[in-house]
Amino acid sequence: MDDAAKEERDPAWWGRRAWSLLSAVRARAPLVQCITNLVSMDIAANALLAAGASPAMVHSLREVPDFTPRCDAVYVNVGTLSEDWLPSMRAAASAGRPWVLDPVAAAASGFRMEACLELLALRPAVVRGNASEILALANRSVAASSNFKGADSSHESVDALEAAKALALSTGSVVAVSGAVDFITNGEQVVGASNGVPMMQKITATGCAVTALIAAFVAIEPSDALVAAACTLAIFGLAGEIGMESSKGPASLRMHLIDALYCLDEETVTSRVKLSLRP
After folding, report:
1. What HEC string does the chain produce?
2. Which residues have C-beta within 8 Å of that of residue 207, sequence separation ≥ 6?
3. 262 band by pLDDT with thresholds 50, 70 and 90
4. How many other CB atoms sit within 10 Å of the CB of residue 204?
5. Under which main EC class is this enzyme filed (predicted)?
6. 2, pLDDT greater than 80
7. How far is CA 57 from the centre of its chain?
8. Nearest-CA neighbor of 107 among 130, 83, 137, 127?
9. What band does 153 get if pLDDT is binned at 50, 70 and 90?
10. Which whole-number Å values give the CA distances from 39 to 45, 50, 81, 205, in the listed order?
11. I want to staple 169 with a disulfide (CB 3.0 to 4.6 A). Which of 44, 122, 187, 234 is the partner?
12. Confidence at residue 157, expressed as pLDDT on a 0 to 100 scale
């Protein structure tokens, strides 16, 4: 085992790495173009701002040639997909900036699956979805009506781990599967992120928000999207844990999560992120 591999198996290394990336986001304020769904715009923009990044909700195809090349990263989310937005998504993903994909409810329809597969072919740096979304993409399958739950997952993250590895190898993207434990893989290495609280699932678009945040971290660390995505998921989950300490329910957790993300300090991040390289 070389020195780099030994470092990555040390939990303290992950804490330092997460803080380093968050500090760099705060210092550089990367500009993230978000072509995201109508439900998630608010929380995605607020999560980016709280972490220190700069969100831009720019959807018009006519703006992409001028605007996207000036961005540090692009975030594409198909949650409220329409044919009008697809050309903008394709153009922004092809503009040469690092970009991430959130394949919301990929199995909901043939149209949505076709759009996700077309976007996958444009090589996102990271694909982040729940277990059902990643399984659907890996299998290129539309869900049966009997177990379909819309944007919610009907599987645990561990159920999609092998599918995530296969998808990462076939696309060249890092694939992140959200769940009680988040798994992030490049097809060979697997990182587990264990921060978070169950009530985060009761707030709409928290998954969308963390994918937007992944784009900001990838802008800072484009050469290691695996580490960038893993650290983002742990930091966002940690903010949820801290926010839960002052919350009475989903609405107050949403507010306190964003506050916690803004207030994270070095000691908290380095001591409380739960990241580990899996066998």
Report:
1. CCHHHHHHCCHHHHHHHHHHHHHHHHHHCCEEEEECCCCCHHHHHHHHHHHCCEEECCCCCCCHHHHHHHCCEEEEECCCCCCCCHHHHHHHHCCCCCEEEECCCCCCCHHHHHHHHHHHCCCCCEEEEEHHHHHHHHHCCCCCCCCCCCCCCCCCHHHHHHHHHHHHHHHCCEEEEECCCEEEECCCCEEEECCCCHHHHHCCCHHHHHHHHHHHHHHHCCCCHHHHHHHHHHHHHHHHHHHHCCCCCHHHHHHHHHHHHHHCCHHHHHHHCCEEEEC
2. 102, 104, 128, 129, 130, 178
3. very high
4. 15
5. transferase
6. no
7. 17
8. 137
9. very low
10. 11, 19, 11, 7
11. 187
12. 85
Task: Give the CA angle between residues 268, 269, 274 to the nearest 5°.
Answer: 115
Residue range 243-250: average pLDDT?
97
Give per-residue pLDDT as tens, 98-145: 999 999 999 899 999 999 999 999 999 999 999 999 999 999 877 544
User: Which strands make up the sheet holding 275-278, listed edge to edge?
Assistant: 54-56, 31-35, 73-77, 99-102, 126-130, 174-178, 182-185, 190-193, 275-278
Sequence-distant (≥ 6) Cβ neighbours of residue 248 within 8 angstroms = none
Q: Which of 94, 79, 88, 100 is nearest to 60 (CA)?
A: 88
Q: Which of 231, 217, 207, 108 lies closest to 157 in space, CA to CA?
A: 207
For the cut 90, the answer to whether the pLDDT of residue 87 exceeds it is: yes
Residue with tokens 């701002």: 49
Cβ partners under 8 Å of residue 265, min gap 6:
none
Q: 2-16, 17-31, 263-277: which has the minimum mean pLDDT?
A: 2-16
Identity of the amino acid at 13? W
**How far is C-alpha 85 from the geometric centre of its chain's CA atoms?**
20
Predicted TM-score of the model (pTM): 0.93
159 and 135 Cβ atoms separated by less than 8 Å: yes
